[in-house]
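It is worth pausing here to work through a concrete case rather than discussing structure prediction in the abstract. The textbook approach is simple: state the sequence, then state the predicted structure, then interpret. We follow exactly that order.
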Amino acid sequence: MSNLSLARLLERVGAQGEGLLSYMGGLGFLALDTVKFGFLGLVVKPRLKPDATFFQMVRLGVRAIPIVVLVQTFVGMILAFQLSPVLADYGQLDKVATVVSIAMFRELGPLITAIVLTGFAGAAIAAELGTMVVGEEIAAMRTSAIHPIRFLVVPRVVACVMMTVALTIVADIVGSAGGGIVSRFILGRDAWEYYHTITDSLLIKDVLTGLIKSGIFGFLIVLIACYEGLGVSGGAGGVGRATTRSVVLATFLIIASDCVFTALFYFLW
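Step two, the predicted structure:
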C-alpha cells in the first residue's frame, strides 16, 4: 500500500471516528439538557403539564398494545414449539414453562418490545419533530423564549420510558401465556401446572432485570428519535433520512446495550 493510499485510509477512518464522537457527544448533551429541564419543570414555573405527558403516553404506548400483544404471543408460542422436542428427549417437558417465562421476563420481553416501539414510536417522534424543524416551528418557539427541549422533548422522554416499562410487563405476561397455549393444546399439559411452574421458577431478579433494561431501551429510543428529529436539514428528504436513521441507530444501540447489560447482570447479579 502506497503512502498516499495509507493517508487516505487514515483520513477516512479519522473522519468516521470524529463523526461518531460528535454524534455521541450530541446525544450526551441532549440527555443532560433533558434531565435538567425535566427537573426544572417540576420545581420552577412554568411547570410541565401532565396533560402533555399523558397525551404522549397514549399516542406512543397505549396504541402500541395490540401489536406488542400479538408479536409477543407468537414469540412465546414459537419458543414453546422449539423447546418441546429437545426437553422431551430428556423427559423434562414440564420445564417448557420455566424456560419460556425466564426467557421472556429477562430477555425477549424487553428486547422485542423495544424493537417494536423503535418502529412505532421512535419513527413517529423523529418525523414529527423533523417536520416542525422544516416548518420553522422550532425556530418560532425559540423566538418566543419557549425552549423546545423543555416542552417537546421532556414529555416524550417521560412518556416513552414509562410506556416501554409498562408494555414490557404486558409482553412478559402474554409471551408466557403464548407458551401456555402450546403447552395446553399441543403438548397436552395441564394449564394450572404450567402456571404454578412459572410462579415457582421466576425470581424477583428475573423480573427486575427485564424492567431495568426496558427503561434503558425506552430512553435510548426517544433520545435518538428526538436528536435526529431536531437535527433535520434539507426539507422533506431530510425528515425521511432522519426517520430512517433513528430506527436503524436505535435498533443497533438497543441490541448492543442489551448485550452489555446482560453480561453485567450475569457477573454481578
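Step three, interpretation. The mean pLDDT is 88. Residues 133 and 139 are 7 Å apart (CA to CA).
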